[in-house]
Amino acid sequence: MPITTSITPCLWFDDNLEEAMDFYTKIFPNSSIGNVQRYGEAGPGEAGTVMAADWVLDGLAFRGINGGPMFTFTEAISLSVACDDQDEVDYYWENLVAGGEESMCGWLKDKFGLSWQIVPTRLFELISDPDPVKGQAAMQAMLGQRKIVIAELEAAHASAS
């Protein structure tokens, strides 16, 4: 069931909104494509092509438009996925980075240029350790990673004294 709120993220795509919705809804559970508005004969886009649409990713509602190439995504806005374990980190990382590019510290850009942070909840536990030396060791380990590897964070945390 979608989260009901008066605020819905709206994402601007060049001309691949339909492909993006299909891509995202196949990756995330509890996802679906909702209302799709297509251009009519009056335009301004080609009749029958997607103008705007609504979709849900894991219960969170989104809206998108095919606005053209004037604006593109930047890292100033990203979507963060909290993961329970390494299998979940691996799943989201591998699926979302396909056709895109890896960055550092759990960040990636998907094939549409949208930035994602794939973050295990364990990271926050480790870097928030009351012992600042252990927390910093986990942070340093994370700063050297692309995809976050929990075992490496835990090893750095455990070896700090």
Question: What's a concise summary of this model?
Answer:
The protein has helices at residues 17-27, 86-97, 121-127, 132-143, 150-159, and strands spanning 10-13, 32-38, 50-57, 60-66, 78-83, 101-102, 107-109, 115-120. With 161 residues, the protein is of the alpha/beta class.
Describe this structure in words.
This protein has 161 residues and is of the alpha/beta class. Helices cover 32% and strands 27% of the residues. It has 5 helices and 8 strands, in the order βαββββαβββααα. The chain has helices at residues 17-27, 86-97, 121-127, 132-143, 150-159, and strands at residues 10-13, 32-38, 50-57, 60-66, 78-83, 101-102, 107-109, 115-120. Strands 1-4-3-2 form a 4-stranded mixed sheet, covered by helices on one side. α3 packs parallel to α5 (150-159) and α4 (132-143) packs antiparallel against α5 (150-159). The N and C termini lie far apart (46 Å).
